[in-house]
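In the design runs reported in the main text, the only information available to the sequence generator was the tokenized backbone. The following block is the verbatim input for one such run; it is reproduced so that readers can re-run the procedure and compare outputs position by position.
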């Protein structure tokens, strides 16, 4: 990335971003890692891929999240070529090859195309410390990302050479990839240089390659006290729009989680099960037998699941509605499990009261999964 140059300046008009309401408050986002000293995070910094569809919006800042914490991620590096693999462009090629990325909409230029700048010589290019671009892992199967109305609002740019904005009818097919780690924090959309008056300066991210994390789980083979059958029909391999995936569709953009069917396979939720990624970077069992082999798609191991909540009399801690804290509002259920369960049950058109959620947790259908991430 080059220094700022104040000679031979050109005239351009960039949008001014409006200030979000000072009364907007974002939900609390918990710590993901459970390791006492923190996990192993490989040296290196990574940007999110520019063309990633947005997942949800931080209402307090107005910024969009493209990879939710707890998502298994892969990397687009200088070995990922646009010519050999359909669907990937705008990566980080070698300096000798260089390349461009769309940065801002110059209002002095007619048309809908964004202005693209060089990744090596532009101030808004990629810093020399960046080794790759983050993208969700897909379990070793090509996957289609479909854009939505949120991408129109967020101004997501298509990954082809047109440098035009995505519409709700657009999609992008991405090739097979392999896991490199887990996002231990929410990854925001890369908007560097997009607005004249606002930028996310902390726009490079690390990944967790080895460490203990705690995520919610859903056992969609459980049918009591309310059935989770339509959470997913099996491991999700494509856009979750079928009626048999209503629960998954309701949670996969906002939560990192582990899901399995204990009825179809008794080993899937047991301690020690090796894990891999589904099409969108969520944790699923790897292999069907107790002796399944580790492969390039293995991302870690399930240490254990737990559903013995509430604990330590936390159900008696007075919390106010909407606080996002564990206490009377959640019947003592940890907030990350409670919020996941509520979103899933609403998506399934099932009872989603605090009592319903407590019953689902205490039945073992939903709970906590302790996962040892290990892709190192």
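Verbatim output:
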């Amino acid at each position: 990335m080059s220094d700022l140059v104040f000679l031979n300046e050109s005239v351009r008009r960039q949008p001014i971003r409006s200030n979000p309401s000072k009364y907007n408050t974002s939900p609390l986002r918990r710590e993901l890692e459970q390791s006492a000293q923190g996990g192993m995070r490989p040296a290196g910094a990574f940007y999110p891929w520019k063309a990633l569809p947005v997942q949800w919006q931080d209402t307090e800042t107005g910024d969009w999240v493209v990879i939710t914490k707890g998502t298994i991620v892969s990397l687009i590096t200088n070995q990922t070529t646009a010519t050999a693999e359909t669907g990937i462009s705008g990566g980080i090629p070698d300096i000798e090859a260089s390349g461009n990325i769309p940065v801002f909409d110059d209002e002095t230029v007619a048309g809908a195309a964004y202005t693209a700048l060089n990744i090596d010589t532009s101030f808004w290019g990629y810093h020399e410390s960046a080794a790759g671009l983050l993208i969700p892992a897909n379990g070793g199967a090509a996957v289609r990302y479909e854009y939505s109305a949120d991408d129109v609002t967020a101004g997501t740019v298509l990954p082809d050479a047109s440098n035009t904005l995505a519409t709700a009818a657009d999609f992008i097919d991405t090739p097979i990839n392999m896991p490199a780690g887990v996002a231990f924090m929410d990854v925001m959309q890369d908007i560097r240089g997009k607005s004249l008056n606002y930028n996310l300066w902390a726009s490079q991210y690390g990944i967790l390659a080895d460490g203990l994390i705690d995520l919610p789980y859903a056992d969609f083979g459980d049918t009591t006290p309310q059935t989770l059958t339509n959470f997913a029909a099996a491991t999700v391999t494509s856009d979750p729009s079928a009626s048999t995936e209503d629960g998954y569709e309701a949670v996969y953009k906002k939560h990192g989680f582990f899901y399995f069917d204990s009825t179809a396979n008794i080993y899937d939720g047991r301690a020690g099960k090796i894990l891999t990624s589904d099409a969108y970077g969520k944790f699923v069992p790897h292999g069907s037998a107790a002796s399944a082999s580790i492969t390039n798609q293995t991302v870690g191991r399930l240490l254990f699941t737990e559903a013995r909540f509430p604990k330590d009399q936390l159900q008696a801690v007075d919390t106010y509605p909407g606080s996002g804290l564990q206490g009377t509002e959640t019947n003592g259920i940890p907030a990350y499990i409670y919020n996941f369960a509520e979103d899933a049950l609403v998506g399934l058109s099932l009872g989603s009261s605090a009592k319903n959620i407590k019953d689902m947790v205490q039945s073992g259908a939903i709970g906590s999964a302790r996962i040892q991430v290990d892709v190192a």
